Amino acid sequence: MEHIKRFHSTELETKEGTLIIEGPVSSDVLAGMTFHEGLVAFRQPEQQHQAIVEIAALPEGRIIVARDGNIIVGYVTFLYPDPLERWSEANLENMIELGAIEVIPKYRGAHVGKNLLRLSMLDDAMEDYIIITTEYYWHWDLKGTGLNVWEYRKIMEKMMNAGGLEWYATDDPEISSHPANCLMVRIGQRIDQASIQKFDQIRFMNRFMY
Predict the structure, then answer these.
(1) What b/e sequence results for 177-198 when a residue is b if at least 16 CB atoms lie within 10 Å of its CB, and e otherwise?
(2) In CATH, what number is assigned to the domain containing residue 165?
(3) Which domain holds residue 28?
(4) Does residue 42 lie in a domain region?
(5) How far is residue 140 from each of residues 2, 84, 101, 149, 164, measured CA to CA in Å?
(6) pTM: predicted TM-score of the whole model, two decimal places
(7) pLDDT in tens, 140-189
(8) Name one GO molecular function term (predicted).
């Protein structure tokens, strides 16, 4: 499968100033940017900066950023599912995972996440993919936001909806381990029925177990 990446860019006015939302950004350009020290949701900022540089270099890897000048203050990643997760077992070349989305606290409430996702989907090539994301409550900043799991889940769901992702049922054990966890999916307009069937099989792997 040919992985086409068409660059888009837009400005977002916030009360903290104007942000540039753009991508997919190349590995080289990302390496030259500064990664904000407040981006700590997944690993230490230096390590996460390196991780997104490496993801951008992958054929299917896509990084969309929100930046203040040369400083990355938010980002979203797309890449093939982790080989250790059930989603990779489908062996679908046309399925990618929204692996991480993060915005520094200063810009929360400014709809940065929604705008990152909207811009991600401007690329027509996204219609060639089944896009999935797995949401686990233990990744959520409940302490920093003061929200409970259901309030946070509602915000996450609204944000994902902005990118066209919708809730899908699954019997995945990790997702099923807590009712706030969820699988969200966007099926591109050019996805064939055979791919959808393979995806459905991977969503429900235990349906014939007694």
Answers:
(1) eeebbbbbbbbbeebeeebeeb
(2) 3.40.630.30
(3) 8-203
(4) yes
(5) 34, 22, 11, 8, 21
(6) 0.93
(7) 888 888 999 999 999 999 999 999 999 999 999 999 999 999 999 999 99
(8) acyltransferase activity
